[in-house]
Please model this.
Amino acid sequence: MFTTILHFEFKQLLRSKITILFLLVFSVLGLFSYNQGEKLYLQNTAIIDSLIQKQSQQYLNTLNLYDTIKYPPQGKLGEETPYMISYLYQVVCDKKISPLSILTIGQNDVYEIAKSGRFGINIFTNSYTEFKNPEQLQIGNIDVTFFIIYLFPLLFISLSYSVKSDDKEMGRNSLLVAQSRNINALYFYRLSSKLIISCIPVIIIFFYSLYNMHEISDFSFFSFSKWWLIAIHYIFFWFLFVSLILKFNFSSLNNAIMMIGIWILFLIAIPGLLNTYLSYKHPNNSKSDIVNFRDVEKSFANLSFNEHKKNVYTYDSSYIKDSSQHNSDPLINAGIEQYSSELKTFEYEKMLFNNIIQSTDNKLDDAKLAYWINPVGCIYSILSSIANTSIKDQQYFEQSVIDYRFVQMNYLFNNLLKSSRFTKKDFEGMPKFSTANKNLSVTKYLLPVLLFAGLALLGIIFIKRTS
Amino acid sequence: MKIIYLNILKRIIRQKHLQLMSIIIVILYILVGINSAISYKNKIALFDQAKANVRKAWLNQPAQNPHSSAHYGHYVFQPVTALNFLDNGVTDYLGSVLKLEGHRQNDAAFSPIMNNSEMARLGEINFSWVLQVLIPLFIILMSFNSISAEFEQNNIKLLKSQGASIGQLLWGNVCSILTILLTLFLVGVFFIFILYALLTKQPLNTFPFSDFLIWISTYMVYFFILILFSVIISALVKVSKLSFLILLSFWVFSIIILPKLIYSTSRIIYPYPSKQEFTKTLNESRKKGIDGHDPMDQRAKQFNDSLLLKYNVKSLDELPINADGLIMQADEDYANKVYDKHFSDIRTVTNNQNQLASIISIINPFLAIKNISMTIAQSDYNSNMIFLSEAEQYRRYLIKELNTKMAYGGSKTGEWDWSVDVSYWNTVRDFSYPQAPLLKRLSYRKIEIISLFLWVVILIVSIKLIARNYKIV
Model:
């Protein structure tokens, strides 16, 4: 029976110019949304490639410098001091941009995709922030996630709100009831056929994205499938809700009002109210802390030499054995002062960063709790996490930048304080930045969506209304 | 006309789903009002605290060389205006801290959105959101069957036979829906203002009442447009189901899809250069000027020679002033020209992108009201630009003041250890931001204002034409 109904629905589709136009418009919108994501992805990767290229050139130049370097007399500052090395070879820490960010732009248009890897430049310095239009950021992106989350339900609703009520309003209902077939099964198959028709733009985007993305070097078919499985799950979620409303046997108009009401509730009202509540509960108040950074940094530089020395020895007691030299060599003395200031600054920077992470975690914990009433927010977060465009991915990247800068600083100052000269070999041995996207577990957050789907399913099974 | 108006008014008020929606809207007003008031109060407190802290830090500087203070710099923050409380516009997407220092013009950093999760992109609800997004839905629900129901229930001929004209029916519907809506809107305005006065404890004499009244009036025009449009659609379509779907599609398209489409397209038509590319060109342009920190620089040498000639001395040491301060200022003057040129190019790109949205507001009243509302509340991009421009003027004043002190304050060329007395810091005035007058701000929104005006005129003419040519079949 299903194939017959599907065949009938497709024939109906071919007869209805408006439906074909709808499908065409939505397909074009879907492809446009893919194109938007792809543009941003290509733009970001081009920027990173160019930064990496510049960095490689600097690396070679600095390496060559060590072939011809004329070290100044012992005790004099030269090109081998930590600050000079980090200036000559400016490490750029790049965020691994997942190809799936084409499908979910998430916060990728807001966050920095690269950070300076120089130990003296704190994580809050925005050297690589691209130009952005705040009005555009506020309006948001039109990406595949937007298409699936916002537009697909509208298309499905517009095609199916009158699946059942039309028969009643056109007087065909008694004819259908008289048939030997189960009428509920008939409507279920009709709704399923409408779902398949509504999925045409989605199917087009799926194949188009697979075709375009499979050639990208770090494309993972597993993550891609995971993303689409979640999207299919969301589509099924809407199928159940539409089925539930149809079960109430309202008129077409009331069906439309109910379905749109649920769409507004899930997609606009609940996420909006929750975001408002979360902003109220966890306000951003880092303004003064960031401003204080300048003064705190300055205060560290003003410590006495003995305090600096104590600070360095507390951090690494192995320096104590060289303490006799630390009073005679002015270069080493300057190094101790700088190292101590940097250590203190790092401590403050890490404290500020951890505060921000803690505040975000508190906010996210509350947001996760709210998934039980916010299934769309839940799906959106899962898709962002799979595409590595969530705030946790950004913080993971920034944390790895801080860790790298700390390792780099220790390496350079260790060389200054323990070796007589920074050589080519030392430069070659300098730690390199590497990061991989952290695969955050997402499946556990699916539970709230499953609950909603389950409730809808129970509603479909148990609600009995006479036609 | 009066009887029709009263009858329609009674019919609408009796509808249960509209009563429910009105209650939801009033509850939302209160929730949003409380949230906005508390958030506004926090923002004001943070702003005042941060502003006081940076001034204190400036005044507490030790006796040091003025140029060290130029590097130490100063921070400024965009003030939170009273109407931000009603519409916070793009403020969450703007940098919240701007560092002013010598030699460079910085971007404002740390936009609040950067500390938010991806969920934040699904939007927040504030008073202007309720008015721009939710009230239009309420209007659609009140008016989609305003005329079509008369056809479906065969009342139209009855009304006609009793002497009522189509024009009276159309205007009766418009006026009754407008009455309900304005009541609901003014209740919201009343609640929001009471919450502002009670929770923020801000002095009311500083509240911009005239801006507030213009803001309210603009929303009234927006609602009037939507009511006229909805009633016209209901009259033209004559089938409630279809009229509802058309109006709803218009709502989805205008509010959800079109703005995103426009801004995405504008990004393609007017792309930004990459930051790397921008910095490279900027640095190249800067290299063509004087390097204030490099005495071996050719242009610096020429500048020094001109000083020697002016003061009729043979070496810089003999100068009665500190040439370093003047070179620094010459470097700044040149850099300012470079920054003006390059940053103005970037602002042109942003303006072009936003201009496209302004043009589209001619067919989309939502975009028009959104932009006007943000502008009146001083939470739009242009208001931020006005602030940034004032901040840059202050930076130039500050650095010039410090360089002048270095040049003419009593030190000699090369005396980098020379320092000013701590009392000097107090003579440098603090940054104060005179807010731009409303007319100046609204001058950026001419297209949007014209758009709303055109919508009103076209819709009134349409109603008149429909009333004249309407056929009751």
Summary: The first strand of chain B starts at residue 74 and ends at 76. Chain B has one domain: 2-469. The mean pLDDT of chain B is 89. The longest helix of chain B spans residues 16-59.
